[in-house]
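Hydantoinase B/oxoprolinase family protein
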Amino acid sequence: MTTRHQPDPAEIAVIGHALHSVAVEMGAALRRTAFSPNIKERRDYSSAVFSADGDLIAMGDDMPVHLGSMPMSVAAVLADLRLENGDVALLNDPYRGGTHLPDITMVAPVFFPGRNRAAFYIANRAHHADVGGMYPGSMGPCREIAQEGIRIPPVKLMRAGKMDSQLLATILANVRTPREREGDLTAQLGACRIGATRMLELVTRFGHARLLNGIRAMLDGSERLMQNVLASLPAGQWQAEDFLDDDGVISGPIAIRVNIRNDSKRRRAIVDFAGTDPQVPGSINAVYAITWSAVFYVFRCLLPPGAIATAGLMRPVKVLAPEGSIVNARPPAAVAGGNVETSQRIVDTLMRALAPALPDRIPAASSGTMNNLTIGGIDPRNGQSYTYYETIAGGHGASPQSPGASGHHAHMTNSLNTPVEALEYAYPFRMIRYALRPNSGGAGKHCGGDGIVRELELLGDAQVTLLADRRKTQPWGLHGGNSGAAGHTTIVRDNIEEELPGKCTRELKPSTRIRIESPGGGAWGKSSS
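Predicted structure tokens:
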């Protein structure tokens, strides 16, 4: 009778870093070959590796809102489709593990020669700057998901290595920028091929049985690591609430409430969002995958630096979210803003709840919004349709140890601002101002980080859509620190300024300027002066 090889900690670390490198290389390949500035410049994508059972075993250094929810997309694919060698599945349905419609996920199996069951799955997700719908950029103030763009259930884009040209044609016929979409989809396919090739190389390097034993040890080790974190927390429960300004249709505030119950003896926790407000007519509804992803992110932040992130981390944590609420919306709710805005407020609420349990670790609130700006129209330079999408950074909340960083994307987004040169080259805009927003971070012992002022001028007719928050509420401080400044969006035409609500769309003329002032972060501690 043979015994299973038991990997030692060093071997587990080597295997974990090798798997992580596969996900990182997939992301690099996607970034290098993508067509759109949103993926190429802003890095609005994520990559991950999964076991034969669909368990997350490695992820890139990408976007938390993508990575935590991607396992549910993989599960939806495995439930609906039998993937054969050379197949690649495609989906973006938020109610099947997706986030919002612009985030398109690809899932591909990895087969060993002569075997009829996939040994691994690799997946990537990228935010496409337009997937149809009522508004350019597919991020407008919609009332139902059918208005937000083309909704794709799990389907096979590639079959036995051959493209389903009819499916691709159907997708491209429903978007405003088909050439750019085809280029980005092709880049995602290329990243899948890179991932599959590298996984086969790892099998050759380690041996299949040894690699699987290492993966099992990683999953179990991640579970023990989270159990140790929960055991180190005091037993008890902590509650918090925070608010979204509004949904762009009805006035707010709209509440998110959470109760975290920690059983330190059993080393388990329950995160319960009972009492959160019901889903709303506007597009800030979050599906369950988003809420689970936010919890995954926050609890991962409690781990020691360098901890390997796998599906095992969440085995000791249960997430309860009432159906029909803004943290577990049901069809046909619009969800574009749930991914980008509500996810941030869920994180804020979780952090606020944990602050009494971890007073020396939890920071004040960061900007709390992704400041989503989408612009679309006809480029007067070439007569072609364009769609521009960007999230704009703000200030980080201060920590017990240091001030908050200024002008950084925080929490559920890990993207970049589009460089000025790339923006002016790709779109009919002129950048007027791009700077930190002075004194927008809260004052305190440790000040919050400052937000950003980003002002651009339109060079042609355009439809401009804003999906942002923290315009009425402010990023809160902790332990006596002041709140960060709320955000503002202003349009300037004919030297007349008009402040826009956080969630709106406008038809604007050439020479109109759009100025976004993103929120600053909250401060930690009272100022000594």
